[in-house]
């Protein structure tokens, strides 16, 4: 099945399952962060959109534990950067309808929570098709080591993601049922 068909099918499944209020236990994410050998100060995530896993509970706990939070902003050149953000900061809605930080302070996360449309057990993901996260991860890996954690529902697991040279494998994927390493 081609990626566009998979996207359409899985996004519909996410929408249909949204009423079931599935979620990821924030402790699963926090354990991965806490057990890392890296000195983690900044966590990049995303503001949930289009029936994605809700990251706000995870952000609240991380904020209480004094981690700096950041969420992405897309530029006119189809590039994405992460900007410092807290719950007190205002958000702007971009052209895709996604909330973005109003902050002008670019940060480079140590951990990146990545949304996904579909994934396989080999830690490959399908996103929305714009390549924003793959380009961003490739760019930041030239500057520093990071931990990438995909967040999704168990029903988003597919047998195999067809990858190309631009697709970047994640370090972990967490669902409400499993952690894939």
Descriptors:
single chain; 181 residues; alpha/beta; eight-stranded mixed β-sheet; 12 strands
**Unreliable spans:** none
The termini sit apart by 25 Å
Give the number of helices: 4
Helix content: 10-25%
Determine the CATH superfamily.
Answer: NagB/RpiA/CoA transferase-like
Order of helices and strands: HHEHEEEEEEEEHEEE
Indicate the overall shape.
globular
Q: Tell me the CATH architecture.
A: 3-Layer(aba) Sandwich
Count every beta strand, where a strand is a DSSP E run of 2 or more residues. 12
Question: From the alpha-carbon coordinates, what is the Rg to the nearest angstrom?
Answer: 15 Å
Structural class: alpha/beta
Number of domains: 1
CATH topology, what is it called? Answer: Rossmann fold
Strand content: 15-25%
Q: What is the average per-residue confidence, as pLDDT, rounded to a whole number? A: 95
What top-tier CATH class fits best? Alpha Beta
- Give the strand order, joined by hyphens, for the main sheet: 6-3-2-1-7-10-11-12
Sketch the major β-sheet. 8 strands, mixed
Molecular structure report:
The protein is of the alpha/beta class and 181 residues long. It has one domain: 3-Layer(aba) Sandwich (Rossmann fold), CATH 3.40.50.10420. Helix content is 24%, strand content 24%. It has helices at residues 3-17, 26-34, 56-64, 132-141; strands at residues 42-44, 68-74, 80-85, 91-93, 99-101, 106-107, 111-115, 118-119, 125-126, 147-151, 172-174, 179-180. The strands form 3 sheets. An 8-stranded mixed sheet has the order 6-3-2-1-7-10-11-12, sandwiched between helices. A two-stranded antiparallel sheet has the order 4-5. A two-stranded antiparallel ribbon has the order 8-9. Strand 4 and strand 5 form a beta hairpin. Helix 2 (26-34) packs across helix 3 (56-64). It is globular and about 40 Å long. The model has no long low-confidence stretch (mean pLDDT 95).
């Amino acid at each position: 099945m081609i990626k566009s068909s998979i996207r359409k099918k899985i996004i519909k499944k996410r929408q249909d399952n949204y009423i079931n209020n599935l979620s990821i236990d924030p402790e699963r994410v926090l354990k991965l962060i806490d057990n890392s050998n890296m000195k983690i100060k900044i966590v990049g995530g995303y503001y949930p959109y289009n029936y994605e896993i809700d990251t706000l509970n995870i952000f609240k706990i991380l904020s209480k534990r004094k981690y700096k939070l950041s969420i992405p902003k897309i530029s006119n050149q189809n590039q994405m950067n992460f900007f410092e953000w807290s719950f007190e900061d205002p958000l702007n809605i971009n052209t895709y309808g996604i909330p973005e930080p109003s902050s002008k302070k670019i940060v480079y996360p140590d951990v990146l929570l990545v949304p996904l449309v579909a994934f396989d057990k080999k830690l490959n993901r399908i996103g929305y098709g714009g390549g924003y996260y793959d380009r961003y991860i490739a760019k930041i890996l030239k500057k520093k080591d990071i931990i990438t954690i995909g967040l999704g529902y168990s029903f988003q697991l597919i047998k195999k993601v067809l990858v190309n040279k631009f697709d970047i494998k994640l370090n972990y994927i967490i669902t409400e049922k499993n952690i894939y390493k």
